[in-house]
Automatic annotation (TrEMBL):
Transcription as UniProt keyword: yes
Official protein name in the record: SpoIIE family protein phosphatase
Taxonomic lineage: Bacteria, Bacillati, Actinomycetota, Actinomycetes, Catenulisporales
Record key words, sorted: Hydrolase, Transcription, Transcription regulation
Highest taxon listed in the record's lineage: Bacteria
Limits of the ANTAR domain: 32-93
């Protein structure tokens, strides 16, 4: 498989270009992550593409046709049979080998993401994946993913046989990275399952209940009940290694085709190991390639076509293998360590470094497992390390010069799921032969805590001190020296001499503080005004506690904090609280006076009026909150000319001003009514009064009516007020309304007038908007709701008014005035 490291690349310095900003590095890291995801997706489908190419090669050889014709032929055959192309390709390859795919044993789970693909497809795809793998490790992953996981296997190891009879772990899948590091080299005298297969040159099956070996790879993680088989990887009579497969528990007897397929997979591993013969020590770890020949497919045609038409032949770039001695040395270190192998492009220029080995103590600074980064290029695992002056530049310099590098504080940034994670590391880099050894560990905990404490003292404007009472030595932090405005070399001040640096008025408080700590041996605190050497006065709070050892006080520890800002804030808050309390008392007194004035003018439940054939009842409901006392009023007066004045009104606003303006308008309207004027004329005059009252404009709404008992007529006029309601014969209606704008809006407003003919039994209701007003609807909609609420079913007029007040759905907490008039 082709990895990122196989692509042509510029040298590290050239690839980076000029110094990149943090945002640019972040975008670069995001791009690397996206390309890595795309690469993983491409690798997951590479085996199926290779399988299709193999089938196409078979058709080309058997039918003697061109590549394009073979492609069309394969697609036509798939369409006729109704099978996916990949399944048809698997069947064609299986026909060449003469093998059936076998079956999945009971209890075995299919491979993740298997979907509906058959085991035949997965087996052939695994073989194709091994052929196209860039190294043995990738080949082992393809075998496990496609061929062995469907058989229930959880892990696979490919061992390479060295000249001295030892086994080297050339590739693996399913084992933890730490376990693979432990078993990277098995001496010839260790009786493992793989060594037994080498000795007998036959497949060796082992279960937890019956085994002859001492130990094997994966027993720590799989447990003693794990079942495994070791199959010799032979090619042309030569034993090149062992294919070892592990199951989590006992397995039943596999059918014979499955055994043949396992033998074929072992032979395919032998072919991969043989292709690596020109590699590193003992023939392990070099370049891997597929050049064609007889292999697991059992026929020359498949391999021949595969290689002839450009599908085979991958030149890997795994680089040199890590020397076992160096890996053992790193595993013995007490700090996390990595081995980095240089990677070069096709022109031989340095492009990156591969993470070739990590020791058991390695901890990824951003929390990933070691297996997640092992084998990756360093800049792919940590792309933000490429920023100017970052860790990647240090690694490249050590590789170029051979000069070791060490630093106690290197910032390493990594991008995990789009989130930038920052870690501070102590780093060491050395060159060992052709590889680099990188050691790192997170910043020392004590140093980090000391720096955090220093920052906390600086931000809190405080400093600590300790005074040894046995030796007289006094130790101050740098922050405390700065707080007292003392130079860096100045001697610290003992606790007994604090009074010499304080205001004279605070000497008593400091003396009490010192006596409590030194003589009573108790923790204490005090506040004083510090007179600094630069002439600035600051408010300081000091706290201290004795240090006792076997009943003897040996030292005093404490801290001083600059609380000047807090002191002045407390003074300002105290003054503000005093002003607020005074204002609250004034407002409360004003509301109380306003409420008393309003209650004196309009009692909540006045006595009913019965005169000249009219029964009149009134109600006043004050606001629920005292500060909302408003200017609503009503009036029902028998005039000297034997007529009756009926008025409801509402002055805009709340509080004492609204109440006094209401009283003025109410009394003015009474006086105007005594002249015998009509309601419209009275409102004309009252509007002039409101417009020029006390040099300021007063706005109000009013409904004013004069009832004549001789002909039962009501002459009425309105100034922007909701209309009265007429209840007649069980029906509630709104009488035609005269024109009239808000009272006091202009000085010369004119108001219209209507005459309403009343009949015995009629009920007239006059009200202020506190009865109907709601925040969530307009006044017209609220008026329609009131029409449905008015039900003349009550026995008396008073009960009728109480019913309206009780069931009103108003929600503005405003005053409400209500007049009910019944004609007898």
């Amino acid at each position: 498989m082709t990895g990122v490291e196989d692509l042509p690349a510029e040298p590290v310095g050239a690839a980076l270009g000029p110094p990149a900003s943090a945002a640019g590095i972040g975008r670069l890291a995001a791009t690397v992550e996206r390309l890595r995801t795309q690469l993983d997706d491409a690798e997951s489908t590479a085996e199926f593409r290779t399988l299709i190419a193999l089938a196409r090669g078979v058709l080309m050889e058997r039918l003697r046709i061109s590549p394009a014709t073979a492609t069309r032929q394969l697609e036509e055959l798939a369409a006729r049979s109704g099978m996916p192309v990949v399944e048809l390709a698997a069947d064609i390859v299986a026909e060449i080998t003469g093998e059936s795919p076998g079956r999945v044993p009971d209890g075995a789970d299919p491979a993740p993401g298997a979907g509906a693909l058959s085991l035949n497809v997965r087996l052939r795809a695994a073989e194709a994946g091994v052929l196209s793998a860039s190294d043995v490790h990738a080949a082992a992953g393809s075998l496990h993913r496609h061929a062995l996981a469907p058989l229930g296997a959880v892990a696979v190891a490919v061992w390479a046989l060295a000249a001295d009879g030892s086994l080297l772990l050339a590739g693996h899948a399913g084992f933890p990275a730490a376990e693979a590091r432990r078993w990277h080299h098995t001496p010839p005298g260790v009786e493992t399952v793989a060594q037994l297969a080498v000795r007998t040159r036959a497949a060796y099956w082992s279960t937890g209940a019956d085994r002859r070996h001492s130990s094997s790879i994966g027993e720590r993680t799989l447990g003693a009940d794990a079942a495994r088989v070791a199959i010799p990887a032979q090619l042309g009579g030569r034993l090149l290694g062992v294919l070892e497969i592990c199951w989590p528990g006992p397995v039943g007897e596999f059918p014979q085709p499955v055994h043949r397929q396992l033998q074929s997979l072992a032979e395919l591993c032998a072919h991969t190991l043989d292709s690596d013969s020109g590699g590193g020590p003992d023939g392990v770890g070099g370049s891997f390639g597929v050049s064609g020949g007889v292999g697991a497919f059992g026929g020359v045609g498949a391999y021949g076509a595969y290689g002839a038409y450009g599908v085979g032949g991958f030149s890997g770039s795994a680089g040199s293998a890590v020397a076992p001695e160096l890996a053992d040395l790193l595993d013995s270190l007490l700090e996390p360590a990595l081995i980095l192998q240089p990677l070069h492009d096709t022109a031989g220029r340095l492009s990156d470094f591969r993470i070739a080995h990590v020791n058991e103590r390695f901890v990824d600074p951003v929390g990933r497992p070691a297996a997640a980064i092992l084998g990756l290029p360093f800049l792919q695992a940590y792309p933000l390390a490429a920023e100017d002056g970052g860790l990647s530049e240090r690694i490249e310099r050590v590789h170029a010069t051979g000069e070791p590098f060490r630093h106690d504080r290197i910032v390493l940034r990594a991008l995990i799921d789009g989130i930038q994670v920052t870690t501070t590391l102590a780093v060491g880099i050395t060159r060992q032969g052709g590889v680099l050894v990188l050691t790192w560990h997170p910043e020392d905990e004590e140093a980090r805590l000391a720096r955090l404490l220093q920052h906390a003292q600086r931000l809190g404007r405080m400093g600590g001190f300790e005074e040894n009472l046995l030796t007289g030595e006094v130790t101050w932090s740098a922050e405390l020296l700065e707080l007292f405005a003392l130079p860096a070399g100045a001697p610290p001040v003992p606790i007994r001499e604090f009074a010499a640096h304080a205001h004279a008025d605070d000497a008593t408080a400091i003396s009490r503080f010192v006596r409590t700590v030194l003589h009573h041996r108790m923790p204490a605190s005090a506040a004083f005004r510090l007179l600094r050497s630069d002439g600035v006065q600051r408010y300081i709070r000091v706290v201290a506690e004795p240090v006792l050892e076997d009943g003897t006080m040996i030292a005093v520890r404490g801290a001083c904090q600059d609380v000047s800002a807090q002191h002045w804030t407390e003074i300002a808050l105290a003054a503000t609280r005093d002003r607020l309390e005074h204002t609250e008392r004034e407002v409360e007194e004003g509301n109380r006076l306003t409420l008393r004035l309003q209650r004196a003018i309009m009692p909540v439940a006045p006595s009913p009026i019965d005169a000249w054939g009219l029964q009149i009842a009134t109600r006043y409901r004050p606001a629920e909150k005292g500060h909302l006392v408003g200017g609503d009023w009503y009036d029902a007066v028998v005039l000297p000319n034997e007529r009756i004045l009926l008025v409801v009104g509402d002055v805009a606003g709340h509080g004492i001003d609204a109440a006094t303006e209401m009283v003025a308008l109410r009394n003015a309207l009474r006086g105007l009514a005594a002249t015998g004027a009509t309601p419209s004329q009275m409102l004309n005059w009252l509007g002039t009064v409101a417009h020029h009252m006390s040099g300021s404009t007063v706005t109000a709404t009013v409904v004013c009516g004069v009832y004549d008992p001789r002909d039962r007529t009501l002459r009425w006029s309105r100034a922007g007020h909701p209309p009265p309601l007429l209840v007649r014969d069980g029906t509630t209606t709104v009488p035609p309304m005269p024109e009239g704008m808000l009272l006091g809006a202009v000085g010369n407003a004119r108001y219209g007038e209507h005459i309403l003919q009343l009949q015995p039994g009629d009920t007239l209701l006059m009200y202020t908007d506190g009865l109907i007003e709601r925040r969530d609807r307009d006044i017209e909609e609220s008026l329609r709701d009131l029409l449905t609420l008015v039900r003349p079913a009550a026995a008396t007029l008073d009960e009728h008014l109480e019913h309206l007040l009780l069931h009103s759905n108003a929600d503005t907490d405003d005053d409400t005035c209500l007049i009910g008039v019944t004609v007898r």
